[in-house]
């Protein structure tokens, strides 16, 4: 048995040290004493003697990752239990150095024995190291007790550094506090926990990670700790975002589509109702568009639709959003816009388009728009709004096209 051990001790405990040292040397146990100013200076898994007055704030959370002995001025069972529950191995009065010596003796000899009796965990480790997603497990005091190679790659630390550490030893302090709180919540509640977070790997790359954690139980039914698996869902989320965008976008023109309008109108209307700010809608339909197809061909018609979308987008403000509702029919939803402003905007688009010429396949093409406009009344239902604006558009068409018609968005009788 190697009888030389390192003990870190806070400078305030120098007066105990000589007595402890003397007691232990009688039993051929040599201690190398290293004086520290704060518990942080004691490496993870090492033995430290620290006085209670020096443990404040997050220092307390470093106790469990070390073989910590807290020395107090007024010892009582309650005080001792308090420190042990916070992760200390034991708690002593500074007036009983021989007790401290006896406990250290028992600890060091026990430690030497269990080291030599360690169960062969190598097969288990090989198995989890083969799994390509990061896996870790911590005990009930939030100390990492194991992990795989993928977890080491993620953190950029060796297993030696991670195992035995608390999250406060290996993560930036602000993040450590967040992880610690999530761990406490899971241990308290039991069961499983699943959440997504954006995480920067040690190599600098940013990943979207799904954390799946679960509490494991000890044979006595108490929580033994937690195991966590980190799945990289960056590609899956990118694909989902692409699909979501595709399902909300008109393929030909790149404008938002009817499906997107149906979602947005409900949300915006709710916001407008809550804030009392006006919300208006414009329905635009190209006049005699069939003629473009008939005269220049369908592909020229497609190009015309793309160009008109670009042209409309350029004429809209930041509160306006354009939707392609059908073939040559569009909606513009205008936030914080009352009927008067909506009409001005519609008229400006109508007259602007009338003067504009599109060049399509070397042909000069003129287009005009018929437009219906409505300010959404807060008390009527959406179907009625859409029916009313259709009516306004129909009137504009029937009255000769290339014109704007407004309709009241009040409740229909
Ligand atoms: N090229 C092309 N044409 C389309 C597309 N969608 C709809 N159209 C055409 O748009 C035309 C719409 O015709 P109508 O509903 O008669 O309307 P219009 O000719 O614009 O006449 P009014 O609306 O009454 O002024 C049809 O010829 C459709 O084929 C498209 O994606 N590409």
From TrEMBL:
Q: E.C. number, please?
A: 2.7.7.65
Identify the stretch annotated as signal peptide in this record: none
Could you say which cofactors this protein requires? Mg(2+)
Q: Where is the PAS domain?
A: 120-170
Q: Which GO terms describe its molecular function?
A: diguanylate cyclase activity
Q: Which class of enzymes does this protein belong to?
A: transferase
* Protein name as catalogued: diguanylate cyclase
PROSITE patterns to which the protein is assigned, alphabetical = GGDEF (PS50887), PAC (PS50113), PAS (PS50112)
GO cellular component entries: plasma membrane
Pfam families noted in UniProt: GGDEF (PF00990), PAS_4 (PF08448)
List residues of the GGDEF domain.
277-409
Q: Which organism is it from?
A: Marinomonas mediterranea (strain ATCC 700492 / JCM 21426 / NBRC 103028 / MMB-1)
The record lists the lineage as: Bacteria, Pseudomonadati, Pseudomonadota, Gammaproteobacteria, Oceanospirillales
Which reaction equation describes what this protein catalyses? 2 GTP = 3',3'-c-di-GMP + 2 diphosphate
Q: Which Gene Ontology BP terms does the record give?
A: cell adhesion involved in single-species biofilm formation; negative regulation of bacterial-type flagellum-dependent cell motility
NCBIfam families noted in UniProt: GGDEF, sensory_box
According to the entry, every stretch annotated as the PAC domain falls at: 193-245
